[in-house]
């Protein structure tokens, strides 16, 4: 049977539909969330997707994030949407909401056993105010990020010939690292500080570094348009975006307009 590839424009509409249904679910159950990273930037600068971007990022305070995982086991967001949890399937150290009718193959990671077209949901964790403690945690996060990528490496791939050869040599050893163990260690580190008791918060779980460390007061709720729909954003989005991107209204040079490398198709 011929594989039906999903075009990027169609994939973006599928992702948007997941976001709409997720937002409705959160409003219904009073779960806090915010558009984050490039999706927040897209909402402010483009009122939708950044033209060269092809994913959606959402940030949720850790208490709401954990509630979402629990609640979707009792009542799914919709019949076509699945919440991937590393405790149950081989996936990432944060949750992805996927369209179950699709399959997604990453260029560099082995993911197609569980992935479909998705949106990323990152926990927004409590974080220490002390700068040295922040650095210590962020260093450990980088190590777990390397271990995760190594454990899920797709054989004979790499962004350069040198990286491909090195990874191929080390590939047999990657099978010795359990994915679930890496994800568990990752999350245990990130959950060390209680979100509701901290003055500082951070998106720690995917090795984004100190550019995603913020004052928690930035995350009062406001709203913005994204692809003609209204979603929640941080009230002080200017502080958030300046912290992550600097002069965020200035378009980056073409060589820095990064896209995610994957292929999606219908089941």
Please provide a written account of the structure.
The chain is of the alpha+beta class and 267 residues long. Helix content is 37%, strand content 20%. The strands form three sheets. Strands 1, 2, 3, 4, 6, 7 and 8 form a seven-stranded mixed sheet that branches. The radius of gyration is 18 Å and the shape is globular. The N and C termini lie close together (11 Å). The mean pLDDT is 89.
Structural class: alpha+beta
Give the low-confidence spans. Answer: none
- This entry's quaternary arrangement is single chain
Distance N terminus to C terminus? 11 Å
Strand content: 15-25%
Q: Rg from C-alpha positions?
A: 18 Å
Q: Count of helical segments?
A: 7
Query: Which term fits the overall shape?
Result: globular
Q: Report the helical percentage.
A: 25-40%
Instruction: Tell me the major beta sheet.
Output: 7 strands, mixed
Summarize the structure.
The chain has 267 residues and is α+β, with helices and mostly antiparallel strands. It has seven helices and eleven strands.
Descriptive key words:
two-stranded antiparallel ribbon, seven-stranded mixed sheet, globular, 267 residues, alpha+beta
Secondary structure blueprint with pairings:
Blueprint: H1 8-29, E1 34-35, H2 37-45, E2 57-61, H3 62-74, E3 81-84, E4 95-99, E5 102-106, E6 118-127, H4 131-151, H5 161-174, H6 179-190, E7 200-202, E8 213-215, E9 221-226, E10 229-234, H7 237-245, E11 262-266
Parallel strand pairs: 2-6
Antiparallel strand pairs: 1-2, 3-4, 4-6, 5-11, 6-7, 7-8, 9-10
Helix pairs in contact: 4-6
